[in-house]
């Protein structure tokens, strides 16, 4: 199955400072800013576009339960995950299972933009946090255009 880079997630301590750096130094455009208090997310997210490349800035909203807070505590701020877009998330998960790569089922969700996502188990990826995602609404539009 084809995979393309969708975005890079960056763990930050101070979202406003990071947005300022991305906009002023990198020339990024702030696409969206939202908060998710869902268990296992508990983050404020700023979606930045730098010349067609998406970076998600992730700041914890709960310093005891947020996975971003745990990440910063263990590894410090910086690149948290790399997300790859796949055509069909469920089929991609089936392929991973056949290859013996585990996914973290508790991370499966749909974000506010309709992106379906799941994280691969870092124990099976050499320690890198990798997200697989798809956009079923866009896929439906693209499928209709092909017919």
UniProtKB/TrEMBL annotation:
Residues 4-135 form the VOC domain. The keyword Metal-binding applies. Coiled coil: none annotated. Pfam families: Glyoxalase_4. Keywords: Metal-binding. InterPro entries: Glyas_Bleomycin-R_OHBP_Dase, MeMalonyl-CoA_epimerase, MMCE/EMCE_epimerase, VOC_core. It comes from the Bacteria. Belongs to the methylmalonyl-CoA epimerase family. This is VOC family protein. It comes from Piscibacillus salipiscarius.
